[in-house]
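Consider this:
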Amino acid sequence: MSRRMPGDLDQRGTGRSGSGGIRRAPATAAPAAKGAAAHDVKRGVPSGAMGAMGAISGPASMLTPGPTSRPAPGPASGPASGPASGPTAGATSGPGSSPVSGPVSGPVSGPVSGPASGPASGPPVAAAPAPPPPDLDHGRLPAHIAIIMDGNGRWAQRRGLPRSAGHRAGVRPVRAVVEACGELGIPVLTLDAVSTENWKRPRLEVDLLMSLCVEVLDREVAELHAKGVRVRGIGRRDGLPTAVRDALKRAEQRTARNQGLQLVLALNYGGRQEVVDAARRLAADVQAGRLRPEDIDEDRFAAAMDTAGLPEPDLLIRCGGDMRLSNFLLWESAYSELLVTPVHWPDFGRADLLAAVAEFQRRQRRFGGLGGALGGAGDPRA
């Protein structure tokens, strides 16, 4: 699932000239081709939103290790050694997707296989050894990482697979980033799962996204709970199918007292819509006499947002190469360090996350002032 394609805060920015800027991250694999984004979509609930649930069978667990499939470093020569296989058998997708420019061919049941992105020839090329993990300063880690999980559809297209296969494959990296954030001690991770714009996609694809939300939440909540992860949802819940709302509620209730990583799932979420909803809540309080207009400031406004009580994202990562926020955490990301990687979400893994954190720690954060220190969690008002 994706945004047009992570939200959080308790520290609000007031300046206008911060140093954070969009920087394109070096690819950890061969850069994927960019695809046109189809992100401006109206919100609506398809009447058959859960129709694809029965078509999903045997997906791999979100918290079960699985290899990522990145393009080989370069073309090989010689006779073909046989057809290349697609995503791992039974791989599922979860929150995270890419823009879709055409109808899906239908939910994929069971294992998914297909040609790789380009003809294979010659003997298999061994994958390059993974680079050593960066030397991170654990005293300057981001308090909140948000991720736009873009590129599922393009990942599938490059392999000659239906887009649904990309959504299924998009579940695997969720495990990698959840585990990595938990091990590093990152307090909050927000994943941009389903945006308010995603409803413009073909109905069959929307059905699959909704059914995957239910499937992944119900299947993984026990392990998330055992690891001390607390699940929290943001977005307009009344626009979600009942089954998705119920699955999210079950996950939130079961993990409500956990003290580990907060996993924030943006479902039917839009940054502009969040601001509008906060303004409506404040207006209702003023109308009811509970609040005076002159008492509304940034802190009061932030308290009315879906992300109330959470730190603002220090680092916002966008997969898939597109250089935009796509209506994600617009209020909260005023001073976020932005990092864009060409890696499509299904190929994003632990090494990519650690590299992003290392880049974050090289940034100088001034929050509109003249001084500033290298990357670390900070208060824009300090």
